[in-house]
Write a structure and sequence with these properties.
Elements: H1 18-37, E1 41-42, E2 48-50, H2 51-54, E3 68-70, E4 88-92, H3 97-107, E5 115-124, E6 136-145, H4 151-167, E7 172-178, H5 179-188, H6 196-203, H7 206-220, H8 225-240, H9 244-252, H10 258-274, E8 279-283, E9 297-303, E10 308-315, H11 321-324, E11 330-335, H12 337-346, E12 357-362, H13 368-383, E13 387-392, H14 397-406, E14 409-415
Parallel strand pairs: 1-5, 7-8, 12-13, 12-14
Antiparallel strand pairs: 2-4, 3-4, 5-6, 6-11, 7-9, 9-10, 10-11
């Protein structure tokens, strides 16, 4: 007997059952309609990009997680290959930002300026699977290209928080910082610019290991006690300050451009003035965001139910220039789609209106006239906007109804051979 095929998905991938698929479709609908109200238009890019693009030093650690695709046909010369690049020339996209920048670079003359883009699609990373993280997962991004003003950040935050509110989330935080503030703080404490990335990697652990843990790791990495103490002291002082943003700006002096400081305060004040009461905008001086392409404002969604980030983004003004040689201002915000769906599933979320479903159960051997009567009745209900399922009746009708009820079918029409009941 031949060996059975593997019925389980590949590690890090998952099958999606109807209940979850219904929620995913609902969330996608809310995302599309809400972002359209803010002027974002949907685009789509291929799931495969050239390895040169994926390895353009814009994806941070994700560049180590690329699923690579072997060359095909005459291009594949295994016997002559000396290194990995001789075997592969493409890979599955690990995010939607690199494909968007390539797309914009290729079509800028055909697009409005500024261009407000919405992307929804799967991405792939050869990462270690864990709760809310898979090797294949959906991303939902909005980006504004061509707008250097603070209005881009304000619109991105307002659009994202409005979307999350309509999905039903409350009590979450949008944490905001600026890479230029991060760099100014590090410089003010005596760290060399060449060490900034290493310092920020340690700082990014603040929520996990606390200030004492960050202090210890910085000292273990060989940084001077005086500079480390001053650095940690800045965060302690900001936490106690009545206005942490103003304290941070004042402490940096001429290390932070006045225009940058005013713009950052404008973003915060405008969002707070317009935003709803279902979330808080919080200045977080420890927020780093791992992507090396961020050049200015950065933000992140923190949901207490998840205990971690459920999305984020920021300004990345230098990326388009990697393709065109000319920089274009750009800013984006990504919703952690899979984590949001996970939270909805765990909370027992039901799609509004999903309970208004009707199932027609038809006994086997039903005469043609009764079959046609049932089908016409079902069509009439569908024309009225109702979801109607027509299926054959099982022997165990009670169990069949229980299964259908679990799928949201609350009414049943039963057609028997001898009479309608």
């Amino acid at each position: 007997m031949a060996d059975k095929l593997n019925k389980k998905p590949v590690t890090g991938m998952k099958d999606i059952l109807p209940e979850e698929m219904e929620i995913r479709d609902y969330v996608c609908g809310i995302i599309r309609s809400t972002y359209a109200e803010f002027g974002f238009t949907q685009i789509e890019t291929p799931c495969v990009e050239s390895l040169d693009n994926l390895n353009c030093k814009a994806g941070g650690e994700n560049e180590k997680l690329i699923f690579k695709i072997m060359k095909r046909g005459e291009k594949l010369k295994i016997d002559e290959a000396k290194e990995e690049n001789d075997l592969a020339d493409g890979g599955l996209r690990y995010d939607l930002t690199v494909p968007l920048v390539r797309f914009y670079s290729n079509h800028a003359s055909e697009l409005p300026n500024p261009f407000k883009a919405l992307q929804m699609g799967n991405v792939w990373r050869a990462d270690r699977p864990q709760r809310g993280r898979y090797r294949q997962f959906m991303q939902c991004d909005i980006d504004i290209l061509g707008d250097a003003s603070n209005l881009a950040e304000i619109e991105l935050i307002l659009a994202t928080t409005t979307t999350l509110g309509r999905i039903g989330f409350k009590g979450f935080e949008i944490r905001i910082n600026d890479r230029r503030i991060l760099k100014g703080m590090a410089a003010a404490c005596g760290f060399d610019e060449a060490s900034f990335d290493d310092v920020f990697i340690i700082l990014d652990k603040m929520d996990k290991i606390g200030r004492d843990g960050v202090r210890s790791e910085l000292l273990e990495a060989g940084y001077a006690q005086e500079g480390v103490d001053k650095y940690i002291g800045l965060f302690e002082a900001m936490e106690k300050a009545d206005d942490p943003v103003q304290y941070a700006i004042d402490s940096l002096g001429d290390r932070l451009d006045a225009e940058v400081a005013d713009g950052f305060k404008e973003i915060i004040s405008s969002v707070r003035a317009v935003g709803g009461d279902h979330y808080k905008l919080v200045f977080d001086p420890t927020l780093v965001r791992g992507m090396s392409y961020y050049t200015g404002t950065i933000f992140e969604i923190a949901m207490p139910e998840f205990g971690g980030s459920c999305g984020g983004g920021g300004r990345y003004d230098g990326m388009v220039g990697k393709f065109t040689g000319q920089d274009v201002p750009a800013c984006g915000f990504s919703i952690g789609f899979e984590r949001i769906v996970l939270l909805l599933m765990e909370s027992g979320f039901k799609v509004p209106g999903s309970g208004d479903k009707c199932a027609y159960l038809l006994e086997k051997g039903l005469p043609a006239d009764k079959l046609n009567e049932a089908l016409k009745s079902a069509e009439a209900e569908r024309a009225d906007g109702r979801q109607v399922l027509v299926v054959r009746m099982n022997k165990n009708r009670k169990f069949q109804k229980e299964q259908l009820n679990a799928q949201g079918y609350t009414e049943f029409r039963e057609y028997f051979c001898e009479a309608l009941k």
